[in-house]
Design goal:
Length: 434
């Protein structure tokens, strides 16, 4: 699914929701009714945004491949922000509107709503959960949390959705007297829940039994960086492309409960897959000592950083540090004639550069160019500072650029590419962050 198609479908759905409100609303009179109706609209839209946020994170292959991880993550967090804003506005507007119409004060009206309608009480708990999840997802708070804590707290979203669902039918004017609307709304929620269960939970388990992936070998590549080779059956059915990643769950004691994304660092070969990991935290460090033969549950492939994005004849692969992994696979497998592919590999020192022998060999075989650029980020010699990148590759503007690296390097590279006036539509990124 193309991003424009996805946006169009989301907008059309939003307009459908507004049409539902319009269809069910008699002429409005007085400030109380105006406020209540604004509350109804924000409530309906919040209910709709919940479904969009769920679908974006359901790991539906068409959405994953069409939008790519970076855009998906951005849209999902945007949906989260809209959801919380709409749900808070809905709550305040409904209380205020009802209070005005019933000549009650705000506190009294809040008490009546909470005590007279059990579904509203449950929805209020759901609102608290949504706000809590929004708070822990704010950039400043998220940095202080372990990824796993943040990830597992996110499961409370499912509880919040379940708690808030009933009040929509029990008290929502648009559904109480409109069975077709109730049916359609239920279908929307059931469809989104089914997609989550199927793609996030059932599919990886089905793939585990079908492909029987196991750890075959662990090989050191550089200090703190190692490759894990995995063997399995029928791997061609996964249709994994160079540039993509899986979420890997290594089924050993102490690791089975977490899954981590790692890109394929080589195109799939027969019964063999390879990932290359930099030790950064507990999981990536302990993986170095994983027992050979450990079964692996892999969910994927995901990501849109594939040869399909390419529009121009010439391609620049721009890698920073461990961001080389997907670009290493693309360097080998991206269809191209000699002279069409250039790899710029940025690392802080030669010791941190992995795959040098492999990359040189691929470059020779394919007639491709490699520039290794070493030095600390932001130093005067940094190729991403000023116009150095444009001087290194004079026809930079006529390239499709595939970019992958740590967040700081990606921002610096994007700025360098903007300075060189490379069109945004020609820049394809994968970020190794959540
Ligand atoms: C699409 C994608 C592809 C990646 N490919 C590679 C690769 O090929 N090689 C490689 O070495 N690294 C890759 N990473 C990064 C890798 O997932 C993290 O380094 C790893 O998960 C760190 O886990 P940890 O427990 O060792 O470290 P922690 O100390 O728990 O985390 C270190 C940092 O890694 C990030 N992180 C941790 N867990 C996850 C997770 N489950 N999902 C997303 N981010 C997480 C967080 O930003 C955290 O700040 C990729 C990340 C993404 C999003």
């Amino acid at each position: 699914m193309r991003p424009s198609t996805a946006l169009l479908s989301i907008t059309a759905g939003g307009l459908g929701v507004l049409a539902l409100w319009w269809h069910d609303t008699p002429p409005i009179r007085g400030a109380g009714e105006w406020l209540t109706n604004a509350g109804r609209i924000t409530g309906l839209l919040a209910g709709y945004v919940v479904v969009i946020a769920l679908l974006l994170m359901a790991r539906i292959p068409a959405i994953e491949h069409g939008l790519g991880t970076v855009r998906l993550t951005r849209w999902h967090s945007m949906a989260g922000r809209y959801l919380v804003s709409l749900a808070v506005a809905h709550t305040l507007l409904i209380i205020w509107g009802y209070a005005l119409s019933a000549h009650q004060n705000l506190v009294g009206q809040t008490g009546i709503l909470l005590l007279s309608y059990p579904d509203v009480l449950m929805a209020t708990v759901a609102l608290g959960l949504f706000v809590g999840i929004a708070v822990i997802s704010a950039r400043a708070a998220r940095r202080r949390l372990r990824y796993e804590t943040w990830y597992h707290l996110h499961f409370y979203t499912y509880l919040a959705i379940a708690l808030s669902f009933a009040h929509q039918f029990a008290t929502g004017a648009d559904f109480m007297g409109n069975p077709p609307a109730r049916l359609l709304w239920s279908a929307l929620y059931i469809g989104a829940a089914a997609a989550v269960v199927w793609y996030r939970f059932a599919t990886p388990i089905r793939q585990m039994f079908r492909h029987r992936l196991r750890v075959a070998r662990v090989v050191d590549e550089a200090p703190g960086i190692f490759s894990v080779y995995l063997v399995g059956r029928h791997l061609h059915e996964l249709a994994a492309e160079p540039g993509q990643f899986f979420r890997w769950r290594f089924l050993s004691r102490g690791q089975w409960w977490q899954s981590h994304p790692y890109s394929l660092s080589a195109p799939p070969r027969g019964s063999l897959l390879r990932i290359t990991v930099k030790s950064l935290g507990d999981h990536s460090t302990s993986l170095r000592h994983i027992r050979l033969g450990t079964p692996v549950l892999a969910s994927g492939p995901f990501g849109a950083l594939t040869p399909a994005l390419r529009r121009a004849r010439k391609v620049l692969l721009l890698a920073g540090g461990i961001g080389i992994t997907p670009l290493r696979a693309l360097f080998e497998a991206m269809p191209a004639h000699p002279g069409e592919i250039t790899l710029v590999y940025r690392a802080s020192s030669p010791r941190e550069a992995v795959f040098k022998a492999e990359l040189d060999q691929i470059a020779r075989r394919r007639g491709a160019v490699i520039h290794y650029l070493f030095g600390p980020a932001g130093s005067p010699a940094d190729p991403l500072v000023g116009t150095r990148l444009a001087r290194l590759i004079p026809d930079l503007r006529s390239h499709d650029v595939y970019l992958c690296g740590p967040p700081g390097m990606v921002s610096a590279a994007l700025a360098a590419l903007r300075r060189a006036r490379v069109p945004r539509s020609r820049i394809h990124t994968e970020a190794f962050e959540f």
